[in-house]
Amino acid sequence: MAVIAHDPSMPTQTHAEVTRDVIRTITEKPTRGYYILAGTMAFLTLVMFGTLGALLKYGLGLAGYSPPIMWSVYITTFVFWIGIGHAGTLISAILYLFRSRWRTAVYRSTEAMTVFAVMTAALFPIIHIGRQWLFYWLLPYPNQRYLWPNFKSPLIWDVFAISTYLTVSSTFLMVGLVPDIAAVRDHVSGWKKKLYGWLSLGWTGADSQWRHYTRAYLYLAALCTPLVLSVHSVVSWDFAMSIVPGWHGTIFAPYFVAGAIYSGVGMVMTLIIPLRKVLRIEHMITDYHFDNLAKLTLLTGSILFYAYAMEYFVAWYSGNPFEQMTFWRRAFGPNWWAGWSMIICNAFVSQLLWFPRIRTNLTALFVISVFINIGMWFERYVIVVGSLANDYLPYVWGQINPTWADWCILAGSFGWFGLWFTLFYKNFPIVAIQEIKEMIPMQRRSAAARGH
Amino acid sequence: MATAMSGVLAAFDHIDAACGAIRELKATGHQDLTVYSAAPYHELEAAIGDPVSPVRLFTLIGGLIGCAAGFGVAIWMSRDWPLLVGGKPIAAIPAYVVIGFELTIMVGALSTVAGIIILSMMKSLKGRPYSPRFSDDQIGVFVPCRADQAAGVEMLMTQHGSVAVSRDA
Description:
The structure holds two protein chains of two kinds. By secondary structure, chain A is mainly alpha-helical. Chain A is 69% helix and 0% strand.
């Protein structure tokens, strides 16, 4: 008799087991470790808002802005978080259209990560503008001076791109959650039943609901697909549309998109490697899923490797002394440590993932994912700060002098992001119940009658 | 509270059994069925036989409105207070592609969600019985019918392999 190998993309549980296992992650009493984690994140968030309060009172002089580096740690961190937010929609929307089955177990956590990362990123331009209470000047509204935003500016493009990305990725997350919240509603009692009942918007899984839902989900995925690729392109044009050396490159859009996905997948692994153990869902998110995530990391990491090499090549080939100097300083200038951190963590560390044994060794993957997070922050730092520090005129050259206000906001942003994610995974299904069930074939009477 | 609708509710463990029952119910003139399932299944969709959802029209119209609004707002506002920026035309179309594109996606996505809500509300499910097992591992089929038809429907459901049949009101 032929032995049929188990397809690793297929869940091994029954429908009832999927419901039970996922809802258990919500209904189980939180452990002391959970409260410590959530408390730490809340503390860091308070640090961020406390620092923001000080910035509001005393102004941006508290942070390390010194000419010519007027885009500093805040803009570096903004680009970092926006990048993190890209893997989620790639996995949930693009891989959905490609019918890639391995995405199903991990897409909810990545999508939640996306929304919270974009929520974190969106704080930074507002912090950076100085008079934070006037942020609404960025929006086109009829004001008493009859002035409108400059739609030719990449910074206004960015306002539209980030607002659209936050709106659409939140919408996509919430639409996906509705049937799963209804499943939770049906398995809890008391005030929780009322709360989840309200959040499930009257979902019952009736054919008249699925009929519109499934088509709409497909169209949402189709709309999200170009959006993922466009948002970080638009962010990259904040730099590439200028004539600052090291920024003015046509390679920037694909380079930033690949970097964004690379950093996002890195953060996904940092989050879900410990999370699956804490929530005891190792049987749902398996080595197979990490192997695929690692392959995606390898692909995007290799694109980055190529982009780094091309940047140096183009700088040399251009014959432009300013461009050449910028890239020489990245490797051998005062910030050489940042330049090499970026190259080692992103271009070289990712190449370890050619080895299948590393791709399925979760400790190794976790360590690599942390290196990716560090490397990608440094990439943003090198691009933003490194180029501004040494412009065309040696007279205005300068160095960055970050202060406690920079570091507190940076640390606080991890707290703010982590707090949302921590609250999310304990209150909402972190694995998509409905989509996992869709992959499990329903029982058949004819098969049961044959004794299968 | 909505008044319970009279009819028969049956639960199925097996998808082929549920599909068989749905087909026969449709053939015997019961068109207004409600079929519950924890996930969408093509087999059930085929048995129910509803046409493709018109939600795509919401996506299309929303996307077109967003695109027009994006270009329209940028062009109108530029012309309303004409300032020459960077030597570009007052209304610089290539620069406005980003605004047009982003609003196409945003309005298209929001109108798609509005489409799910509006179209789902067009068929009221109020008063139709439901069981929590339907979001877990069973398929439910509810058939609104008069009391004198109920016995026949119950028998049909049982013959097709329903594991639980109940009569409402």
